[in-house]
Amino acid sequence: MSVPAPPRDAAPPGQPKKAATAAWIGSALEYYDFFIYGSAAALIFPEVFFDESDPATATLLSLATFGVAYAARPLGALFLGHVGDRLGRKKIMVFTLMLMGLSTFLIGCLPTRDQVGTLAPVLLVLCRVLQGVSAAGEQASANSMTLEHAPPHRRGFFTSFTLSGTQGGQLLATLVFIPVAALPEEHLLSWGWRVPFWLSVAVAVVGYVIRRRLDETPAFARQTATEGVVKLPLVVLVREHWADVLRVVAGALIASVSTIFTVWALAYATSDAVGMSRSSMLWVGALANVVALAAIPLWAALSDRVGRRPVFLIGAVGSAVTMFLYLWAISTGAYAPTLVLGIVAFGVVYSAANGVWPSFYGEMFPTRVRLSGVAIGTQIGFAVAGFAVTFAARIAGPDGDDWTAVALFTAALCVPPVVAALSARETHRTPTERLGARAVRDDAARPEKVTA
Known about the structure:
Helices cover about 75% and strands about 0% of the residues. The protein is mostly helical. Helix 1 (about 15-45) packs parallel to helix 14 (about 255-270) and helix 14 (about 255-270) packs antiparallel against helix 15. Residues about 1-10 and about 440-450 have low confidence and may be disordered. It is found in: Cell membrane.
């Protein structure tokens, strides 16, 4: 009796779960570092690194430093995407985690404005740039790793672990900041805010131990052994897959919902205009992330059955509506509807788009340029999303309380993702080795593609 041969790109038994676990834990640890900066930028840094005599300008500048990392991410994506498609996913996953841990620890060691003047915010921006470079390669490499290890009929579910790990990191960052924000003002502004950043040392150690033991993906190993790696991934990407790169850029603007929710809404709710406490609003984010941890894999599993496009569209259209309701609830100063709508908007609805994009974007590209395509496309879109916080602070008016303008701005940023999803092809039933095949032309006469 003959035994059917496994698919050409089949992973060894246990590897899909191992890859998903490594992606989850690594992303959680990496994005713990990234998101504690967001909480600090909204609550602490305006007073520590900027001029306290003008609180509105100090808040605006602090939120701008949050966006600086997003501006650095496209450049990081160009470099790390190139290296990842030539040398493999594993090397990038280890490198990005170590860089994030180091840069975050250094933020906790920085002198304040009172100590060194304007040098303080300059050093802060430099460390934030390093965080951005690290984040540029983290999700794309983890997504590629899990997608290429996953069974073809469950790619959505397995790749979603990268994003649920991101939510886990955001939850951890929020939980760490809740007791820190409750410290007396004197202790909070002197040493308390530094503690979450110093904990990144543990992040680097744990992440290194987890990821260095992970095998390279069978799809990348097969690509290397048969056709060879792409010598210039960016050239091939622009020449053959430019339309899908543009779709990913447009789709990635959905991340604006996350940055508005995480940073601007937090700053608005705790401002004098509304007056909610820091701790209570941090709990909104914490509980929303707890719900997201469950919602993300459920939405992703649904996409394995009904397709990526319908699930992504639910998240994009629904986020435009629910974020409007959430900001309205904050404007009333009533905590109960703010809590409920925050959980619905971010924990449930946004998770539909957030949970499915790792497979949706990754399936647009073949193995040879997948990491570059996802990294470059997402990081350009995320750069806009990062500065959405700064734009929101500007259009909210001199008193920072024009929430309707911010809600409309957020809804407008949800339109390009809708267009991108509607124009994309459905790929949830495409075999892994055939992903991106529609855009691939005959490569026989391209000597620049393969290295020895």
